[in-house]
Write the C-alpha cells for this entry.
Amino acid sequence: MAVGVFDSGLGGLTVLDAVTRRLPDVPFVYFGDNAHAPYGVRDAEDVYRLTTAGVTRLFEAGCDLVILACNTASAAALRRMQEGWIPEGKRVLGVFVPLIEALTERQWGDNSPPREVAVKHVALFATPATVASRAFQRELAFRAIGVDVEAQPCGGVVDAIEAGDEMLAEALVRSHVEALKRRMPHPQAAILGCTHYPLMEQTFQDALGADVSVYSQANLVAESLADYLARRPEMIGPGTERMFLTTGDPAAVSDKATQFLRRRIEFRAA
C-alpha cells in the first residue's frame, strides 16, 4: 500500500514530512535523483527523461500513485507523461494544483469555469526551468481570471540549500525578492514554487513584508493527497516497505537528509 514521492534531490523531503504526518499509516517510498540535481537548470527533454526513469523505479517499488514533489518536474514533464506515458492503473500527480486551489479558494476537484478571485497580484518564486515552462500561469488560467503573475527565477537557491549554506541561501532569497519587487512593488500573495523553499519561508516572508500572504506547498499537498486517497483508496499500491532511494551516494545523501529533516534518514541506492 505504498505511495511514491519523487524529487530531483532533497527538497521533496518537505512534502514527504507533511504527507507522512497527515497519513501515518501509508508507507511512502521516496526517490531522490541526487546524482542529477538540480533540475531547475536543465532543459525540458532532460527533465522528462530523468523524471520518467525515477517514476518507473517507484512503480517497481510497489507504488501505483506517485507524487512529483519537484516543481520543475511537475512543470516540464507531468503533462507529457499524463498524455501518453503513464501505464494503465498508475497515476502521477503534481504539486501545482493544490497550491493554486488554495490561492483561488476553490475546493479540491472543482472543475467549474474560471472566475474572478480576490488576489490580483501574485509573485511566483521558482527555479529557472519552472518559470520558463509557464506551467503555473497555465494551471492558474483554468481556475481564475484577471490575476497578474510576476515570476522570478531564483537561480542558486536550491544549490545553496542542498549544500547546507544557509547564509548564502538567505542572501540569494533577499536578492530575488528585491528583483521581483522592482517589477511588482506590491504583491498580495507569493507562491514558493519549489519544494526546497519552505526551508526559507521566513526569509521570504521577512523580505516581502508582513502584508504579503506566502503560500508554501507541503501541507497543502498533504491535505490534497489525503482527500484524493479517501476518494480513490484503490490507488494505494501493493508495496509495504518505507524506503528512501537515491541515485547519489547513499551515505552522503543520508547525512544531508538527516540535517534537512533533523531526524535520521537512511537512503539506499536506487
In short: The chain has two domains: 2-94+219-269, 97-217. The two ends are 19 Å apart (CA to CA).
